[in-house]
Specification:
By secondary structure, the protein is of the alpha/beta class. It is built from five helices and 16 strands. Its cofactor is a divalent metal cation.
């Protein structure tokens, strides 16, 4: 097995990377940041997002495992004091994994050219100054005219982030779906939107056609200044992200730990 290490520059993370390098070498596991079979991230969920975009398109079977330098996150299963246990799990690796859906967004320029992006968490369309005015299509059907700060489209794992703050539902990642939530929409007798989150299954699309020459698109941590973009289409991607499931924490336990309780308890009790 060849392992890549992807980390932030915080002092604690750098110490853990040094310890990881030592343990990997002692266990005969090769570090290869260029052609890995598995990527270990050291940091937080943001670090794992960075690793995802760094290695996107490299190998469809590439797996990730997160080692957190703080508290457990949604994508990180191991803590900083568990380096030996993690490396021991690598020694007994049998390719086990759990897979989560991704979001695909496709921009279309005024000249007909297109550009594709993948998001692990979410994408947004915003008008930094003023109001975003756009038509929103479900499939080829014009569903509504939108006016407001913007819209957010999230994967199931991303549904606990910006989407949740917008009043969206939290979706289990076994569901092959994406969710659109409104960001401060304008609703009155003249302008009206559905006002509720929309959940769209795989095989269906959400297309936003802004009535502006330029606007802002975010794709996870990336910011894209869209100029002469006439439409942005969102759908569940064919690709998925894979996590090594040595001891992958149940999704609802992650939600409970993040938003409800300090400790994960048996959900059946």
């Amino acid at each position: 097995m060849k392992v890549a290490l992807y980390h932030n520059d915080q002092e604690r993370s750098l110490r853990i990377v040094k310890e990881l390098n030592k343990e990997l070498k002692e266990q005969g596991i090769v570090r290869d940041d260029e052609h890995p079979d598995l990527v270990i991230t050291v940091g937080g969920d943001g670090t794992l997002l960075g690793a995802f975009h760094e290695y996107i398109g490299y190998d469809p079977d590439l797996r990730f495992v997160g080692l957190h330098t703080g508290h457990l996150g949604f994508y990180t299963d191991w803590l900083g004091n568990e380096v030996k246990e993690l490396v021991a799990s690598l020694k007994n690796d049998s390719g086990q994994r759990v897979s989560y859906p991704l979001l695909k967004l496709t921009t279309t320029q005024s000249d007909g050219s297109t550009q594709e992006y993948l998001a692990l968490n979410e994408a947004t369309i915003k008008q930094p100054i003023g109001t975003l005015v756009s038509d929103i299509y479900l499939g080829n059907h014009l569903f509504e005219g939108f006016r407001g700060d913007g819209v957010a489209i999230a994967t199931p794992t991303g549904s606990t982030a910006y989407n949740k703050a917008n009043g969206g539902a939290v979706l289990h990642p076994s569901l092959q779906a994406i969710q659109m939530s409104e960001i401060a929409s304008i609703n009155n007798r003249v302008f009206r939107t559905l006002g509720s989150p929309l959940i769209v299954p795989k095989g269906q699309t959400i297309t936003v056609k802004p009535k502006h020459q330029s606007f802002l698109i975010t794709c996870d941590q990336l910011e894209i200044l869209a100029e002469n973009v006439v439409s942005v289409r969102f759908e569940v991607a064919d690709e998925m992200i894979h996590f090594a499931s040595y001891r992958h924490l149940d999704f609802w336990c992650r939600v409970q730990q993040a938003f409800i309780a300090d400790e994960v308890r048996d959900l059946e009790n």
